[in-house]
Amino acid sequence: MENDEVVVIDAKDMNYRELNEKIHEVLDKNPKVKKILLKNVLGQRYIGNGLQKKDLTIEIYGVPGGDLGMFMSGPTIIVYGNTEHAPGNTMDDGKIIIHGSGGDVTGHSMRGGKIFVRDDVGYRSGIHMKEYKDKFPVLVIGGRAKDFLGEYMAGGMILVLNIDKEGKDLGKIKGRMIGTGIHGGSIYIRGEIEEFQLGVAADIKEFTEKDREKIKGYIEEFCSYFNLNEDIREKLINSEYTKIAPVSKRPFGKLYTHDLR
Amino acid sequence: MIPSAVPPKYKVEIDRDRCMLCGRCVVECSWGVYRKEKDRIVIYPNRCGACQRCVVMCPRDAITVRRNITCWRDHPLWTAEVREDIINQSKTGCVLLSGMGNAKEYPIYFDRIVLDACQVTNPSIDPLREPMELRTYIGKKPKKLEFEFVEEEIDGKKIKKAKLKTKIAPNLKLETPIMIAHMSYGALSLNAHLAMAKAVKECGTYMGSGEGGLHRALYPYADHIITQVASGRFGVNVDYLTRGAAIEIKIGQGSKPGIGGHLPGEKVTAEVSMTRMIPEGSDAISPAPHHDIYSIEDLAQLVRSLKEATRWKKPVFVKIAAVHNVAAIANGIATSDADAVVIDGFRGGTGAAPKVFRDHVGIPIEMAIAAVDERLREEGVRNEVSIIASGGIRNSADVFKAIALGADAVYIGTAAMVAMGCRVCGRCYTGQCTWGIATQRPELVNRLDVEEGARRVANLIKAWTLEIKELLGAAGINAIESLRGNRDRLRGVGLNEVELKALGIKHAGF
Ligand code: SF4
Ligand code: SF4
Q1: Cross-chain residue pair A257–B94, CB shorter than 8 Å
Q2: Predicted TM-score of the model (pTM)
Q3: What is the β-pairing status of strands B136-138 and A57-63?
Q4: What is the DSSP string of A133-170?
Q5: Is there a contact between B96 and A256 if contact means CB atoms under 8 Å apart?
Q6: What is the pairing mode between strands B353-354 and B261-263?
Q7: How many other CB atoms are there within 10 angstroms of residue B494's CB atom?
């Protein structure tokens, strides 16, 4: 199975530093590597941290530890399992596909790239995501998010599909404090959200056909990664979403007065 | 328009006999104090903040700015300031925003500590004649050194050679224990940053990037820049992290412990937006906590994450504000793989802080250094981690005292700005700094000459470095290493027992 382009690393009993250094060594030694398969991953943190190789895919079998793909800029990480907290932390570019659930703070401060989570994410996910020019971070959550989704969001997009593994509706989203302090970007949640679930500075805006166009591609991408059939895809595309966006670009602009004397 | 619900704080006068109506003051004052009307310069004193730009620039020395003594009814409790604040807040319903450091009259412990000197029995050292070692290494030090012996053949003879087995973590090498503190690009102008970068390079020391990312113009100086990672994660990517000499995680800052930062959208110009990697004109909000840090373990995770991103080649510092629990927190940091703890005292400056925080939250840096040093010694880890102190270091004596209290090195902020022309007017948050330091307005930025600014900052660091050498010599010490935590070289004057205990020093006379 091992050739120039695919390298398998058995992470069993490996310390995180050892594992990550091994990944660096593989890449240093052979820049042609296209895929790294990590087997028996059990909580090792920082996998893919800071990697900048665009055409690289890391497949992870097991449960990676915190800060998966932190500062990553380019590669694709596919996880066959759940992840610990903060996958995609301050990620710059690239993709993380999680065939399971993401922990708390999934996509923290993400400024580019995409994260697709098959199931749920924990608290404070998508917090402080931001965008810059062509960098537009996207977090797609198949299931549901816990409280504080998209707090302080400054750009990019969060999409919550609210379906279970079979594509059935999960019912009303219960998360609170959605988008506290949001001053850029938008959150789309399939189904209805009550005003009281929003945080300060967040507002419910009309979901238009333009918005539907905007999210369509990401839904299709999501369905393709997780093998969801045509019917489910159509249902997701044609569902009603609640769009949450900032009240203003300057939520705290009026909070201060100058002590000018 | 500056509201005039309270009387002007300063009185601006033009000597009409001297004034030649050149209009320079009108141009120089970004606050709008002056307006030219026919054959007269009209003055709006309520807009004046005593930044002194006009005073210095008037070709005829015709301008005088004085404290305006408005007759408030005297009251020891309800001072003019208290009443003015209430009037302002009742008018706007807003949080009062202010700049620079704590402006209240708390005791300055540095000024109640005197240095000791040698006489006869333990002779002083002449720094002009003897070498004085000011070089300081900031970073993790090994607990102990381990060697292995390898046999080598030299000239046919087998010789046992000792080789260092212990891996030494990367350290920053400072030629003087003075660094320049983190002040972001955005809060400060590019010219100010460039001037400081040139100066630290010349002096063999370092400056902080602040949380504003790193402007391309600073890349040539990157090996003398410590890049900062704050809760907003502005401008943070792998390139930024690997480019600098070290990385600093900012948890808190002395001027506003416990709260985040906020660069208003109007200051996010095209250039600032580029280095911060956020859209132009959008607010740059750094939330109070890092949302991926809710415990010491989480902090340790971020420290290691930054090390992983840079393959353990860069020292990682953690900066916290001086608060009463600082020793315990610093101990947690010391055990987290961090290489240095930065403590910022309540005199620390800032571009913008709610006035109530600036003036009332935090503790004096002197106490904090002593407490952290003491605690890390008790825990047996003081040797492994460095302490950097900042927040109100005003002269070489402060540097010396901070080190004797337990710091390895200091950061200076306001002092470096004053060297570049800042008059501590405290209006940095308006973005209209007349000296071109705390502004992004091109016509104001241009007022700060990079070369001249660099010269002044470098001169300041060099002057203090010379003075530190002299002070060391007087203390009979020839290396800064021997001064660190050497509190026996300090004596308190007029301090009570509790204060002396907190500082860990004896009173003069003992
Ligand atoms: S700068 Fe001096 S001389 Fe010129 S107009 Fe102002 S006060 Fe008069
Ligand atoms: S930097 Fe400028 S605005 Fe800030 S205190 Fe100094 S002179 Fe005043």
Answers
A1: yes
A2: 0.93
A3: unpaired
A4: TTB--EEEESS-B-SSTTTT-EEEEEEE--B-TTS-B-
A5: yes
A6: unpaired
A7: 10
Nearest to A116 by CA among A169, A66, A76, A174: A76
Nearest by CB to B279, from A16, A21, A132: name it.
A132
Element (H, E) at B456: helix B450-474
Please report, for residues A143, A252, B346, B472, the alpha-carbon distance to residue A201 in angstroms, rounded to integers and kept in the order given.
25, 9, 31, 56
Residues constituting chain A: 261
Residue with CA nearest ligand 1 atom 8? B19
Chain A residues with beta carbon closer than 8 angstroms to that of B304: 45-46
pLDDT tens digits, B324-339:
999 999 999 999 999 9
Of B155, B320, B307, the residue nearest B246 (C-alpha): B307
Locate all alpha helices (DSSP H) within A5-102, ordered by sequence.
16-29
Task: List the structure tokens of B11.
Answer: 């009185």
Dist. CA B248 → ligand 2 center (Å): 25
Residue pair A61/A42 in contact by the 8 Å Cβ criterion: no
Integer-rounded Cα Rg, in Å, for chain A is: 19
CA of residue B24 to ligand 1 center, whole Å = 6
The pLDDT tens digits of the residues spanning B170-191 come to: 999 999 999 999 999 999 999 9
CB atoms within 10 A of CB B460: 21
Dihedrals phi, psi of A200, to nearest 5 degrees: -60, 145
Whose CA is closest to B218, among B185, B174, B258, B266? B185
Q: Which atom of ligand 1 is nearest to the CA of B14?
A: 7
ipTM computed for the complex = 0.91
